[in-house]
Amino acid sequence: MSGLTDDLRERLLRLRRDTAGEWGEALRGGAPHKPLLLLAVADLIEAGLIRDNTIRYDDRLLGAFDGYWRECVGDRPTNPLQPFWYLQNDGGLWQLAPRAGALDGAVAGAVAGGRVPTLARFRDAVAHAQLAPDLWQVLQDPATRDEVRAVLVGRYFGGGLRAALQQRHDLLLQAVVYEDELRRRLRRDLGDLFGGDGALDPRFTAEGRSLAFRAVVVEAYTHACAVCGTSVRTPAGRSVVEAAHIVPFHVCRNNDPRNGLALCPLHHWTFDQGAMAVRDDLRIVVHPAATGLVADDGFRRLAGQPLRLPADGACAPSPLALAWHRAHVFDAAV
């Protein structure tokens, strides 16, 4: 594989960015959305999570983009749909593919008032994005993929951010390796829940383990809360569902997905506080104190409802973990 052509390099160096905001020297005075999205795509290709030239606006891409965004901008709100939409205007690097059955001009028509469309209008019109063939090709080879990363990082980010971006890149790849390890464990008996699961393997950082645990557990439950079935997403498309350890990690050092439940933030908190638990028959039990406190009727009505289980039975919650939670969290709650 030869290196980047001068033409492709020049197109990567000329991304259109908002320079009116207060972006600072570390971001070279411009918005980082587009280069960060391209870095995220390159990472997902390297990790084997994008295998053909079909770039979907999905949880994987959002997670990779958000990780980079936090490194560069912190908690400043953003909508990753903006670069996904507007990259189509940058030197032919990116093209949006219409959804099958969409009317002619549906992609262009999704814009209202010259602004990025709502997520609903976007999904009605767009199936996925595609990279320019020459960019897709160079991203298949490790050496030229590194060249692309070097061009983007060198052009759009100051030296103070470059190490942080490299660490984020390494973290994503590490988390994917750990995901594979977690899925392999599902083919084995859980064994001693409190014997640890090699979770402190020095190859993996705490953040890498956490990212992988969330990915496996939340995907198993299709981003829906196991208690209430909620599958809420933000206007940008981010899933609010979280991965909860049944037995806290600090107690058992075990990230096995069977020690996890996908829960919305409300039911994650109430589960951790012992306000609810899950019986051996996989039905929800609500703490008796809920009847004597100011509690929402909807919460009390959860009692006796079946837990929503993942389609893949291998990911079903461990009875040992649920029993431990009842004995040590639910029964101990006062």
Describe this protein's structure.
- Helix content is 43%, strand content 7%.
- By secondary structure, the chain is mainly alpha-helical.
- It has helices at residues 6-13, 33-46, 59-73, 81-86, 106-109, 119-125, 133-138, 142-156, 159-185, 206-220, 249-252, 265-272, 297-300, 319-330; strands spanning 94-98, 126-131, 242-245, 260-263, 276-278, 284-286.
- The longest helix is centred in the middle third of the chain and has 27 residues, at 159-185.
- It is globular.
- It contains 14 helices and 6 strands.
- The strands form 3 sheets. The protein has a two-stranded antiparallel ribbon. Strands 3-4 form a two-stranded antiparallel sheet.
State the main characteristics.
14 helices, 6 strands, globular, mainly alpha, two-stranded antiparallel sheet, 334 residues
Low-pLDDT stretches are: none
Largest sheet: 2 strands, antiparallel
Return the string of H and E elements: HHHHEHHEHHHHEHEHEEHH
Strand content: 5-15%
User: Numbering strands along the chain, what is their spatial order in the largest sheet?
Assistant: 1-2
Structural shape: globular
Round the mean pLDDT to the nearest integer and report it. 91
Q: Count helical runs.
A: 14
Helix/strand class: mainly alpha
Helix fraction?
Answer: 40-55%
Number of strands: 6
Q: Report the radius of gyration as a whole number of Å.
A: 23 Å
Q: How far from one another are the termini?
A: 65 Å
Topology:
Elements: H1 6-13, H2 33-46, H3 59-73, H4 81-86, E1 94-98, H5 106-109, H6 119-125, E2 126-131, H7 133-138, H8 142-156, H9 159-185, H10 206-220, E3 242-245, H11 249-252, E4 260-263, H12 265-272, E5 276-278, E6 284-286, H13 297-300, H14 319-330
Antiparallel strand pairs: 1-2, 3-4, 5-6
Helix pairs in contact: 2-3, 2-8, 3-9, 9-10
